[in-house]
Amino acid sequence: MEDGLSPEHSLDVKDRGADTGRRYRYQYACAGLFSVNLLLENSEISEVFCEHHEDIVIKYNDGTYCGIQVKTKEDGKFSFNDATTFDVICKFIRCDVKHNPHFQKYIIATNCGYTKTGNANDIDYCLSSLREGIENNPLLDNSFFNTLISKWETETGQTKEKILEVISKIYTQKVFPLERFNVSLAYDVALLTKNQDQGLATLLAISNDLIGKVFECSSYPCSDPRYHFLNLLENPEGQAVTLTVQEKMITKDMVEEIFTRHIDPTVYLSMIDSREIGQLSPSVHRLELKMDSGGIKAMDIFYYKSHKVSADALLAKWHKKYGSQEANDRFQHLNNKVGNQCQEAYRVHYDETEKFGAQMLIDVSERLMGISPEIKTTFSDCSYEHLLGISGVLTQECLVVWSKEYSDPEWLKQ
Q1: Distance between CA 398 and CA 138 in Å, rounded?
Q2: Which of 108, 166, 187, 298 is the most exposed place for a label (fewest CB within 10 A)?
Q3: Does the pLDDT at position 213 exceed 80?
Q4: Using CA atoms, how far apart are residues 92 and 102, in angstroms rounded to an integer?
Q5: Order of strands across the sheet with 170-174?
Q6: Sign of the alpha-carbon dihedral angle for 42, 47, 52, 55
Q7: Quick one: average pLDDT of 325-330?
Q8: Is the predicted pLDDT of residue 279 greater than 70, yes or no?
């Protein structure tokens, strides 16, 4: 009898367990993404709960909650009248009845979104219409919509008024694709927290730790040691609820700990003369005159001016992307690094009698080329040419000189 394939070198095409695991992991990735919102400035979210009444529950700063159900579909989109959506809305109705009035919102989070038709068959159309007002809403005269309402009445035992009240609080949200969702989570994490300069490996490590934290918070049993000695505590039943709910909670501190585990806060260098980006002159006249006084050739000066323009653009980009404080801290760090190399080259080539700017320029270029890889690890978008441009900025600002003596002409002082 011929030997069969080795299990190590073949796949089970009906591996239901692996597919189920992937969908749960997708749900955990969604919870991880919502948890990152805890880090945002002026965030409205105070805590995130995992597998607690809903797949995900968000607590807002005002004490109200948002319930989230995560649903995935291999092909196509969900529709308003499919079985999955019907069951989700039934669950939201029961949750709202049980916890009224604590839930202000519900979300159906999916990997594929919903079919758009622009009429009563379109869930987003209906939800938006109901949020504008339930009374005298034309949907109430639509037979398709009323059939769905009747089904929810039968299934939940609630009145039409209560069902409409809950439905008007539901939103849909397409999160990220089912395939390679961990990479999608990594990119979303980078965008939300302005960490686009981090490498993909770092962002994936953060994403995987977020998913792991959600998995931990979604699972029983409670790991708090007090859980095993409840009978010794006052009000054992109440303590059991409190401890279990705490285990399901993700806080801002937990998310921050994950980020700091992988991203060390950069301690930037600074300078005594710490001019801010907004105070820099866009002019290159002084740069031209100072480099010319050191005997530097016109073509070299031309390229240096071009590098300064590139550096100015990089600083403007940082200011827009990170805000004035972070951008200025980055600028001061570069000032310190580049300025130090320029000053060392100045000391080496200084000459009382001969112009030394050309020799100093060669040395500065080599020195900046040498530190470029180090700078690149701190600021991934800062190239060797940008470093040359920063030395041009420092020249224009009178912090780097290329000759024994230099003074601005009268026309430049005006």
Answers
A1: 72
A2: 298
A3: yes
A4: 12
A5: 170-174, 103-110, 65-71, 54-60, 45-52, 249-250
A6: positive
A7: 89
A8: no
What pLDDT does residue 358 have?
Answer: 94
pLDDT at 272 over 80: no
Range of weakest confidence among 51-55, 144-148, 285-289, 314-318: 285-289
d(CA 362, CA 339): 15
Quote the pTM value.
0.65
Whether 403 contacts 294, CB under 8 Å: yes
**273-277 average pLDDT score:** 59
Cβ-proximal residues to 410 (8 Å cutoff; 6+ apart), any chain: none
CB 32 within 8 A of CB 25: no
**Cα 291 to Cα 301: distance, rounded to the nearest angstrom:** 7
Token pair, residue 171, equals 């939103």
Band the pLDDT of 413: cuts 50, 70, 90. Answer: low
CB count, 10 Å around CB of 370? 11
CA 244 – CA 348 distance, rounded (Å): 68
Residue ranges per structural domain of the chain = 16-262, 277-413
Gap between the Cα atoms of 208 and 167, Å rounded: 34
Q: Specify the pLDDT at position 340.
A: 94
Dihedral pair phi/psi, residue 149, rounded to 5°: -60, -45
Sign of CA dihedral 399, 313, 203, 374: negative
Taking a C-beta distance cutoff of 8 angstroms, is the pair 334, 318 a contact? no
Measure the CA–CA gap between 327 and 317, rounded to whole angstroms: 9
- In this structure, which amino acid lies at residue 18? A
